[in-house]
């Protein structure tokens, strides 16, 4: 059986934690996480930790009750190594003990 849905892959080039939290909140309230099967966050290039908040704090505040699998600090984005993820591809993601694999299928 094929499980369909969206896997978001996101990362921050330059943003404060409150800006990041507001962005996630706007995405959530726009319904963008409705059919979400998981979110992969790349390591941020620059993220100011204003008000003592961390990236993880912001993610938990906005998405903590959504029952969405989340991977943090993945090798995607602006900081090497920069692994490619193909938009629109079918992905099989396995993650355990802070290590994981992404298999890509083009159909």
What report would you give on this structure?
With 107 residues, the chain is α/β, with parallel strands linked by helices. It has a single domain, classed as Glucose Oxidase, domain 1, CATH 3.50.30. It is built from two helices and seven strands. It has a three-stranded parallel β-sheet with strand order 1-3-5, with no helix packed on it. It has a two-stranded parallel ribbon with strand order 2-4. A two-stranded antiparallel ribbon has the order 6-7. A hairpin with a 2-residue loop joins strand 6 and strand 7. Helix 1 runs parallel beside helix 2. The longest helix is centred in the N-terminal third of the chain and has 13 residues. 15% of the residues are buried.
What is this structure's SSE topology?
Blueprint: E1 6-10, E2 14-16, H1 17-29, E3 36-42, E4 46-48, H2 55-63, E5 70-74, E6 90-96, E7 99-105
Parallel strand pairs: 1-3, 2-4, 3-5
Antiparallel strand pairs: 6-7
Helix pairs in contact: 1-2
List the defining traits of the structure above.
two-stranded parallel ribbon, three-stranded parallel β-sheet, Glucose Oxidase, domain 1, 21% helix, 7 strands
Strand content: 25-35%
Order of helices and strands: EEHEEHEEE
Q: Give the terminus-to-terminus CA distance.
A: 16 Å
Structural class: alpha/beta
Return Rg in Å.
14 Å
Give me the CATH superfamily: LD-carboxypeptidase A C-terminal domain-like
Largest beta-sheet details: 3 strands, parallel
Mean pLDDT: 89
| CATH architecture label name | 3-Layer(bba) Sandwich
Name of the top-level CATH class: Alpha Beta
